[in-house]
## 1
Amino acid sequence: MTTPRTDLTRNQALVLGALEKAEGPLSAYTILDQLRDDGFRAPLQVYRALDKLLATGRIHRIETLNAFVACARPHCHGHGLVAFAICDDCGQVDEFSDAVVRERLGAWSSDHGFRIDKTTIEIRGHCAACSAA
Ligand SMILES: [Zn+2]
Ligand SMILES: [Zn+2]
């Protein structure tokens, strides 16, 4: 279930808007720079908004880049497995999910009595457009 945007505070809506407009992942400091004209002054303001947006599944953190992207499909997945393909040339991030990968990881976890809190799959490489160039 995705909650409507009216649930967001002004700061959360501004941060989400910056991420949705971005061509690629943004760091918290880049977001802060972009939102200075909107009254953002301190990194903590950005981090608070990011935490809330992460918790509600509207954005994702790209761990290997320490940066954030807007969820590509906020209506399609809840807290299931999400994977990212990150182009190291143009910085584009493709979000996808794969049922087979999720099943395999789930099977391994139950075999080993491991309780999953979070799964991070990030593929680094070169997107089709950059590979062709
Ligand atoms: Zn997503
Ligand atoms: Zn690329």
## 2
Amino acid sequence: MTDDPETLLREARTLLPEVVRLRRQIHRYPEVGLTLPHTQSTIVAALADLNLEITLGKQLSSVVAVLDGPSPGRTVLLRADMDALKIQEATGLDYASEVDGAMHACGHDGHTAMLAGAARLLTMRRDRIPGRIIFAFQPGEEGYAGARLMIEEGLLDRCGVPDAAFAIHITPRHSSGEVFSRPGPVMAGAGTFKIVIKGRAGHPAEPHNALDPIPIASEVVLALQTYVTRRVKAFEPAVVTVTAIQAGSHELGAIPETATLTGTIRVVSEETRLHLFSAVRELAVNIASAHGAQAEVVVEPGYPPVVNDPAIVEAVGEVSGGLLGKDHFRLMPTPIMPSEDFSYILQRVPGAMAFLGARPEGQVTVADVHSPQMILNEDAMAVGVALHTAVALRLLDR
Ligand SMILES: [Zn+2]
Ligand SMILES: [Zn+2]
């Protein structure tokens, strides 16, 4: 048995029927959030004959499986998320969700099945693994910060701090088997805010006897837009969007007591994310105060930006080129603005997230992830299995 790319890819293709079966089993019973008992037991059963050291999560249904080679060496962590979304599936597939209002619409069922396949392929090479591989199956990626909870439960400490980490996200937007990534920021960091401007209600004909929160809220909206263009580097993408304004009522026709703004922040550097969190607060509080009013500000930090290690992206590019041919790996020109909690792992461990194209054959317009019609090309999962395996072997070897 060798580790040359053709052999890895051929073996991954041999495993594909089993990977597809596992994916469909998970797809049928999607579970949302941090508690995924069915998914957890399905993964544990899929890994049962591999003789890996398995640890289950306490506050979440995570599965951590450790493969130790015959000699000590570097440690590589491979991660797959395994949670679904609160979406009613409308694909019409014969293995569609059997759970009302839940669907694997982000491809995490595929991520999980690919990582289980890679665990098998790597275990077949156990005798020649120079170190340790950690397979991390993570619940709660979709807004529940499952990765952070797994870190709190010792993911990065219990069996040695990993030297490198790698994760794949599948995408139906690109042709099957194409791999994308980029050095540095690859996905955005996020945050949301709620600002309540507290004025004083009163008669609309006598605003001097009231304290109208509406013009103050309007100033805050404009100040937030100005702030982003004047205070954030022009070369750094940053978005502050006010998504709702609520004040007064059409029926009452009076000056209201309060005005409420909610909004969202997206950035690609952690420094700017924290900077904007405090800027939102300061602008709102100080603009309100200048008018004799008060502002209450609540910022909910989302996930930090996903920042890839350049050397590891280079290794992923070389490995992908070797597996699939050079033109199947592409450097993304810009980050994308969704966020992902693999970022918590990358804050501690140098690593990379890559995207794997999985567009169904013959489709030009596709339903993207988070759509009730989202369908994946399952053949791409063979590439995912081979990619996880080849990247792990490469990163162990560095
Ligand atoms: Zn998603
Ligand atoms: Zn996802």
## 3
Amino acid sequence: MPRSLAHGDYRLMMAVESASRANSWYRVLVDHRSGQLSCDCPAWTFRQNARTSGTERSCKHTHIAQPLMNAEGGVNVRLAGLPVERASGAAAENHRLVQATRQQWPGLGGRWSFEQRTSNIDNQPYHFVHLHLTTGNGTTATGLVAFARRYHPTTESMVSGVAGWAGYAIAAEIARTAGYTLAGQPPEHFKVTRRTTTTPGRHLGLTDILRVGDQVDLGDGYTPTQRAENTLRLFLGETLYAQLERQHFLDVSSVRYAHERRVYRIRRDPAKQRERRVRLFIDGQYTQDLCIVRGQDVPEADHWMTNFLTLLSDEERALSVVQSYNIFPPHSDDYYEREEETVPAVWMPCVA
Ligand SMILES: [Zn+2]
């Protein structure tokens, strides 16, 4: 799969709030090929000659992140610092921070755990929140957010940041593991101060998608439908989003039914109104339609994204809601004209 040359191939390892500006975030990224960390704080950005002077390019944020990094570029289960709270399984799922993340990224399925610790960065007190998901498909993904305690003293004040940053990192890693390396490029900064939403061609940022906590209404005038579309577009990235717009589907290769080279073709209504049935391919042959019913009052883009993330993360759970009366013969929802399949559905193994 081609990778974005413009943006490189990065994974968001940690988001760190500025110690001097509330809700201004630095992104610590891992270069997938070299394993090198980068940061967009001024110290790292301007230290461009570090390599030639014989030292590794770094900043206080990459210093914090480096020892936490595991072999996959994710975060170790154990953080440093004083433990505040930790939970796993059902207790984690019922925790406000995990709930908000699942609300923001519906469809992510598996066993959640989370941990919060306090520690200092450069003598400034910080909260570290670490989310971990072992998916039903058997892969793992992590998200780590460091909040300046002076700006985010309470759990509730951290809800948007955790759902936005940690949730994004987890969803991105799951898409990447399933072969969608173009999805989940690290998002823009949390706060967009130098641009306005009216600028044509402006890149979407996390502010354009967040819908949790007390920051639902950011005064940007987005409706839930627009916000859901923004989420899909930001997460997929321009190339994949354009592909979805053009062909009206993306394929997900089965993990559970790898032996039959099963592919789920997750289709999208060109008019972005009604839900379309998922087309099932076995060894390249279109065999069935699966009806995954949309939840009440959920924007169509949300429904599509939910199906996409559910099949990527927890195929068994996705299939468990498809009862026998929701399985149909091919072309069962070709309402207006027969929609033939012209693009081969090619099964690909999981890259993990
Ligand atoms: Zn930095």
## 4
Amino acid sequence: MDAVAAEPTYPGLGGFIPGARGSLMLDVVFLAMFLVVPLLGISYCLVKFRRQYDLHKRLQLAMAAVLLVAVLLFELDTRINGWEQRAAPSPFFDPAHKWSCPAGISLLIHLAFAVPTLVLWTVVVVQALRNFSRPPAPGAHSRWHARWATLAALGMVLTAATGWVFYWLAFIATAPNPA
Ligand code: HEM
């Protein structure tokens, strides 16, 4: 009788992306970023070309709320269950050199964008809520907001891009079978 290779089991809830080894929350955040990046573009166009400031505000607040909840759940998941076991089959991950193998380096690069972006994003939203009129309209806060919000948005795009690279290196790439 042929031996059937057992599916590896990992700690925590498994994800849903076919062919990948991510946990449920890793997969949720990975896919959510594909939504956030185009939404950011739409939100930018709403103010730049259509002057729909209220819609821009609502879209940004909704994104901030969803991202906050996703990041909290994601943090809990990776703190409790770790990610190393799920990355183990990848040829780009080496548990003995966790932070100097390609997957570890890509995670450090990702965090270098993600952490400052999270702080900047929070500051931009809080300052906008405190300083723009209600309903929101251009005013004395516009110059500050234009500069730092653009930087926050760029940070978010780079956070997404570096996150996708890490996800691929750690949870999709698989060592080729020896011939
Ligand atoms: C992190 C969240 C946010 C980001 C990334 C963001 C991004 C931007 C960007 C890129 C612009 C265009 C700047 C330009 O003209 O070049 C802008 C304009 C504007 N935003 Fe936001 N925004 C955010 C949150 C908010 C919130 C919460 C409010 C309202 C309370 C708001 C109100 C406005 C207004 C009124 C303008 C027009 C300013 C003007 O053209 O003078 N934004 N935003």
